[in-house]
Amino acid sequence: MPAKAKKSPKAVKSPKAKKAISKDDFIQKGTKLPRDPNAPAPKVSAYMYFSQEKREEMAKKKGPALDFTAAGTAIGKAWSELGEVGKKPYEAKAAKDAARFEKEMAKYKPSAKFAAELEACKKSSKYQPRLKKDPAAPRKPSSAYLFYTGEAREKLATSKAHKDKSMTELSVVMGQQWSAMSEKDKAKYVKKADEDKARYESEMKKYKPTKEWLEAKEYLELKKAKAKSKTPEAQEAKKAAKAKEAAKGLKEKNKKVAAAHKAAKSAADKASKEKAKAEAAEAKALAKVQALEAKLKEHDGELKALGIKPKAPKAKKPKAPVADIVEAVTVDKKRKAPAKKASAAKKKKK
What we know:
CATH architecture of the domain at 23-131: Orthogonal Bundle
Shape: elongated
Number of helices: 10
Structural class: mainly alpha
Strand content: under 5%
Radius of gyration: 57 Å
CATH class of the domain at 23-131: Mainly Alpha
CATH superfamily of the domain at 23-131: High mobility group box domain
Strand order of the largest sheet: 1-2
Order of helices and strands: EHHHHEHHHHHH
């Protein structure tokens, strides 16, 4: 018997690579801002002209059986394979429509009513991007009323008296029943709420926010702060703060100038007083000298009357310059030197 052929091992499918999570995955876009019905029609791109043409062709062939998602994929592929030459007719249409749009936009001016409506929408949180819940975050605790409604809703919906009522009508009935309920009957739901709250607090202590979620939160906060800073109120507040800061700086500058002026005046006053004091002392000394000179003249007159000639003050002998003294000493030494030599010669003869 021929040997059985070995079965080839099945090819192992490689696991699909997980999509990398970014901060954008945690941001939910707000509702699109309303469009002015009187505004010019938006310009159409070359791809949109091509897409419209192809969809019409596909709709004629397949009719109601046309799968729009599959058709979109096929159209995208056909566009990428079209080439530059094939795209030219659609690009020409797009350029013509862009010129039309710019011309109409130059004449367009929104009405005051729509402009006010648009500004109100921009301020509304409905039209602002929102932060999604972090999937890693603990589930928030439920209230006692929510525990009650979770239990009562099913009973009311299946009861004969309320089975035909809508969810809104059932909510009204549950609200009425909860208000009429005694504290004793509410106790079991309150206990469940307390336990759920304790569970939430315990989980929150261990919870660490996702890095990308924190990035999304920071991004939205910065965006909100930036948008707020551009409002007329914020601009006015900024101008007021700037003017206040300038006034404060001018006040400080004037304060320093005043202090410098005061210090200069004080120094000038002090110098003036010192000068006056010195002049007074000089005048006093001069008066004293003049009094002494007058007294001396009077004394000389008395001596002359007695026939005594007053002695003239001895003139001080001027001191010889140092160079002259050195020269005199040197000459004297030279004169004495031969005598010493002669006496030495006499001693030798003896």
